[in-house]
């Protein structure tokens, strides 16, 4: 009985996308959306895609074998594309390689599913580093704290204001793998929660320890750093004294 129910649930996902309008609506309806472009929806690659879809219930998966849809997105056959709203980016995975199975596809999605607020861990760290956004804002906090849901609500509201400019990241201080990040920012757990803003091209960063998170405080912190970096960029480069000699 349970296996029959499981099979029924698995067939609900991915959603079939038969035209461009359906595909566009599908992508725009989620922070992260995945589409598999398959000429043959019953192929081995499409079967692996369905398996992966069942393993990631919170990410919408769509499948299209429409030539018009494939052409519209400039995709080749047996390609999986991940679309994300936070930095208007797209990541592709070629499934023609026989080594690519449901496990590798699941890792590809987990690695690249950056959101309005992305939780930092060893897998999402790769996607964070590859993002086109040059500014990262970290909320370093204890997820177990009873204040965590309210902190996240405010942090997420602030993230909406900087969409496409700053990548907002949640870093749970309880994860052992995050200890080195605390060390990098010279923070102790007793100083948390803290905000850390980071400019990826030159590693310039500022850390702010706070009693509590507020939308205004996050805005002031972000705007101050962005203005500082803008002034630095606008500053004319000093010419060497011997340049004209």
Automatic annotation (TrEMBL):
Protein known as: protein disulfide-isomerase
Reaction catalyzed: Catalyzes the rearrangement of -S-S- bonds in proteins
Classification via Gene3D superfamilies: Glutaredoxin (3.40.30.10)
Cell compartment(s), UniProt: Endoplasmic reticulum lumen
Domain of life: Eukaryota
Coiled-coil residue windows: none
BP GO annotations: protein folding; response to endoplasmic reticulum stress
EC numbers on record: 5.3.4.1
GO molecular function, one term: protein disulfide isomerase activity
Pfam entry (one): Thioredoxin_6
Keywords noted in UniProt: Disulfide bond, Endoplasmic reticulum, Isomerase, Redox-active center, Repeat, Signal
Family matches, as InterPro entries: Thioredoxin-like_sf
Gene Ontology cellular-component annotations: endoplasmic reticulum lumen
Biological classification of the source: Eukaryota, Metazoa, Chordata, Craniata, Vertebrata
Family as reported in the entry's similarity comment: Belongs to the protein disulfide isomerase family.
Enzyme class: isomerase
């Amino acid at each position: 009985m349970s296996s029959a129910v499981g099979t029924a649930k698995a067939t609900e996902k991915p959603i079939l996308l038969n035209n461009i309008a359906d595909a566009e609506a599908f992508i725009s309806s989620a922070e992260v959306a995945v589409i598999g472009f398959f000429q043959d929806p019953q192929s081995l690659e499409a079967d692996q895609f369905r398996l992966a879809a069942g393993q990631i219930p919170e990410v919408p998966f769509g499948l299209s074998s429409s030539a018009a849809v494939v052409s519209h997105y400039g995709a080749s056959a047996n390609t999986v594309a991940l679309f994300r709203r936070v930095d208007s980016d797209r990541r592709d995975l070629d499934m023609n390689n026989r080594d690519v199975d449901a496990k590798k596809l699941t890792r590809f999605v987990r690695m690249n599913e950056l959101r309005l607020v992305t939780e930092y861990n060893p897998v999402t760290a790769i996607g964070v580093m590859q993002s086109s956004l040059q500014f990262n804002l970290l909320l370093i906090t204890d997820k177990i704290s009873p204040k965590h849901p309210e902190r996240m609500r405010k942090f997420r509201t602030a993230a909406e204001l900087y969409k496409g400019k700053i990548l907002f990241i949640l870093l749970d201080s309880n994860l052992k793998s995050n200890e080195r990040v605390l060390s990098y920012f010279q923070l102790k757990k007793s100083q948390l929660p803290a905000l850390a803003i980071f400019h990826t091209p030159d590693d310039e960063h500022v850390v702010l320890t706070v009693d509590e998170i507020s939308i205004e405080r996050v805005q002031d912190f972000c705007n101050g750093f962005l203005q500082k970096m803008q002034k630095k960029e606008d500053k004319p480069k000093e010419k060497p004294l011997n340049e004209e000699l």
